[in-house]
Every structure is written in structure tokens, then in C-alpha cells.
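Below is a concrete protein record.
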Amino acid sequence: MTAEFWGKISYTVQLLAACLVFMLPARKRPHFPVIAAGGAGLCLALSFVINSFYLPSSVSAGMMIYWFAYIVVSMIYIFCCLDITMTQAVYCAACCGGVQHIAYDLYMILFLLGRGNPLLYFLIYAAVYVLCYFLCAKKLPEQGIFSVTIQSLFPIVTIIALVWLLSVCETTVIATTEAGLWHRLFYRIIDALCCYYILWVQVSQKERLILQRELDGIYSMWLTQKRQYKLTRDTIDSINRKCHDLKHQIRALRLTENEQDRKDYLDELEKDIMIYDAAVETGNKALDTVLMEKELFCKSHQIQWSCMAEASRLAFMKPEDIYAIFGNAIDNAITAVEELHDAEKKVINVKVFPRNDMIVMQFRNYFDGELRFENGLPLTTKSNKRDHGFGVKSIRYTAEKYNGTITVQAEDGVFTLQALIPAA
């Protein structure tokens, strides 16, 4: 490959390589390899042909159109390769331009210092592109899609376009005038820092959006649990009162009715009613409510229930927080055991007990399949991961409100979640 040939396609190669960095983790269209390879070949051919006849050497409208065409082509190339909107393609192309600028600026800094050579040229670009893939490109898409709107797109496109414009002008002016070494070094350093800052802001914003969405989901779940706790408490209190009255009525009827059919009917009715009178007494009214609700559900769905709870020292916790921890933990356990085919493994075990100055809340159940963990917490097995997976995070968030912590283990088909909260 001659220097002349490389000079006509080098910028296109740099842009295409940057595009590939951001396309790899994104959602691709069918036949992506064919489209990507064919599009890259077409772009290189057009670049060679156009640069064989026209190469701007001074600041002019033609020069601006010439360099702007590269950005437009990269947008179209990305849009054709990825299953995304044009807005997302523009966003991706802007990020690609930033990565290419960083690599070019770093190489130019070493070149101006007298250390430029073809091998170093390749190594710098390879290192920058690989680092940008892991530190930026891999983190930006969510389920293969770039989360961007017209409003959020405007700042990054404006800044990248300004940096790109100044870079083109600076390169062209230097080619026709004598600029000092330190002037050129200073510009390249500032240019690289601006592009790095833009990419860093994109990753930071993405992480903040994820955290905000998680907090919104946890807060929404907490409000739902709070409302549900109040409804459950009132419902169970009402059921207990009615069942208590019914028991006395049934006993009175048994004394006055001697028919065998009536007796059998009353025995069966009393047996059914007794399930609602199995009042749980843990020493904490809120915990009694949530445990009774979950116990009733388990018994009516053929799930074995085992509970040992001493919770008199939980009075310092708000009722809705107790409901949030136990409601989420037991609901997750119910979901897991309902998927089991072996009836003997449909077992949920709940323990609450003091240990020194701590309150231990332990939940155990069998599960089927394989769980993946991230930051110590299991990832949701539901297909829509964006709107699910807040249950365990809500438990951790609630425990941390009281300076507590949680641990999660999944071994030999047994899932164990344990929360430890300092006793007030």
C-alpha cells in the first residue's frame, strides 16, 4: 500500500473503525456482516475516487462541505448496519467522531515531538479504540439501543461539530502558514481533552439515568407496598373478626343439630375457616400482618410454609418498611417455587431472630435453573429486565436505611436471602 493510496483513504478507515467500535455492542440489522463489509468497501471506494480528483487545501465553503460529507456518510453507514433510529445513528456517529479525534490528537502530539512512525500510528489508534470500546461504547447501549432524544442529542452534536470544525480549520491553516510547535501541541491537547470530556459525560449521564430509574422503581414499589400493607391489615383484621364470630355460631349449631350430614358439613366448614384464624404472633403487628397474608396465599396454592419469628425488637422500623422487606422477599420466593415441578420442593422457610445486637431476617426456598449475579444481587429472569428486578434492590435499599445489609446465596438449588439490621 503506497503512501499516496493510504493518504486518500486513511481518514475513511479511521472513521469506519470508530463506527465499528460503537456498532459491536448495539442491536444489529439482519445480515450485519454482509452490510457492514459491503458498506465499508463502498465508502473506501468513494473516498479513493473523490480524493483522487479533489482535496481541499484552504478554508472555504467547498472544504466545509467536503469534510461534512464524511460525517454524513458515517451516519448513513451506521443507520444501515444497526437496527436503530436515525436520531440514534447521529448520536453514534458523533461519538465515533470524538473517538477518532482523540486517537488522531494523541498521534499528532507524538508526531510533533518527533516520535511519529507507521507502527506507532497503528498502535495508538488500536489502543484508543480498544479502550473506548470498554470504557464507553460497551456501556452506552441498553439492550442494544442508544437511549437518546433530540434534546439530549443537541449538546453533544454541537460540541463535536465545533471541535471538528476547529480541527479542520487548524489543520488547513497550519498547512499554509508557519505555526509554532507549542501552539500546535496546545491545540491538540485541548482538542483531545474536549472529545474525552464529551464521551465521559455520555457514560456518566447513562449511569445516572440507570440509577435514577432504579430509585424511581424502588420508590414506586415502596409506595405500592405501603398501600398494600394498609389494605392487607384492614382485610385480615376484618377476616379475623368474622371468622371468630363464625366459629362460635358453628359451635352453637352443632349443639342443636344432630343430623349426620349437617355435622359433616359443619366440620368441613370449620376446617376451612380455621385457616383464616391461624393468627401469627411474632411480637410485631406489621410483621404479623404480612406473614399471615403470605401464609394464606401459600396454603391456598399448595406451597409448604415454615415460619419461626421473634420480632419484638423490630418496633423501631416503620410498618411499610417491614412490609417492603418481607413482602418482596416472600413474593420472590413464591415466584421461584411456583415454577418447580417437584411438589416436595415447594417450600418456603422464613426465620426472624435476634443475634447479639442484630436482627436477622432469613428467607430460604428451592429454585430451578441458573441465576446470574451482578454487584452481589441476582439479575431478574424476566425478559423485560428494564422494568423488573427491583425487588431485591428494594430490600437492600430498605435495609440500608437502618444501617443494615443483605447477603444473597444460591447453592445446590437453594436460594437464601439474609438481611441483618442493627437493633435499635
